Amino acid sequence: RHSETIQMAAFNAEAILKDVSQALIADASETRITKIQLIEESMTRGRHSETIRIKLEYGKDCHLPRSIFYKTTSIKENIIDQSSALNKSETESYHKEALFYKHIATNLSKTGIRIPTVFDLRDHFDEKTFKTDIMLVLEDLALAGFHQRFIHFEKRDVDACIPFLAKMHSLHWNKTQSIEPYTWKKGSYWDIGKRPLRDLSEWPHICERFAHESSDMLQANIKALGSRLTKATPWIAEQMREMSPQTLIHGDFKSGNVLFDDSRQVAMIDFQWTGIGLGVEDVMYLLTATFSLHLGENDYALERSILKMYCDELAKFGISYDARDALKCFKISVLDFSRVVFGEFYRGITPQIIRGHRKGNCRAERHSTH
Predict the structure, then answer these.
(1) Taking Cα atoms as reference points, which of 10, 75, 17, 18 lies closest to residue 40?
(2) Residue 12: DSSP 8-state
(3) Residue 63 phi/psi, 5° resolution?
(4) Which residues contact 272 (CB under 8 A, 6 or more apart)?
(5) Which of the pair, 282 or 207, is modelled with greater confidence?
(6) What share of the chain is helix, strand, coil (3-state, %, to 5)?
(7) Phi, psi at residue 305, to the nearest 5°?
């Protein structure tokens, strides 16, 4: 079973043992790792990366962690010439995450923002060829009690996340100069610099595909959204760059990257798209990508109440942010994300998928995997 798991994950056991030993054990004479067990169900794969939870056994009793997460990215060929902007951004995102852990994470942790401790990292990234060799040995937050993850968020889950986001955003509110060299100049994976505008001419046909689900899809103003977004995209991109206040944002703050402990405290993981942006971008994506459909559909009052909560939480850190300004930034952020929703996500979605999502729109829990 042990050898099958290693083969399935395409990991090199000897390389893992060496990396993890160097990360955790300062003096080899004190103890040594005698066994590693790769947890198959925890493995996640990106385009170029693999992450897996590893259980550890030692030669004698010690206070070292009994499990960690191991993330590797390896690109040996030159991809710069033949790759799309998206592929290049995804490749660079692994380097950005390593820079985050190297230069930003410690200061966040000191303020009480709960993120994984990085025990060790390797960051070799060639900006000319995009050849990459990156390794992260990360804390397993489940050992600290953050073992709950929910596929769909209810209102109480959002309520727990808003103070967390406000605290994180407050740390670099209109003060981003010190972190700019180590992160994306524009955070979020849907930024137009990372995901250029797709052809939206097919949008009217997509609307017709969903007409049986909602007759609203056939309204002229809905069918015209594709062309309207195409025309508005340059203005939206400019607004996202120029609007203030800018701060450090997570850039992918969704349910899969949020963990809870039993007391409803929040921790976050996955910092490939962390960068400079509007704080409400994280709030917008939290509601858009994570909130249960039956709670979020057409409920503008709910959005406004959550934005007010966000502003109230910022005030606790001495930041005055008017709810009307927050709403304006929120609306622009929704438009910015809509470009990706209409241009990419809807292309692969059918009415059957939407119906299946609604049927399965229930709470689910599983142990943390980052």
Answers:
(1) 10
(2) -
(3) -100, 15
(4) 90, 93, 94, 96, 97, 189, 251, 252
(5) 282
(6) 45, 20, 35
(7) -70, -35
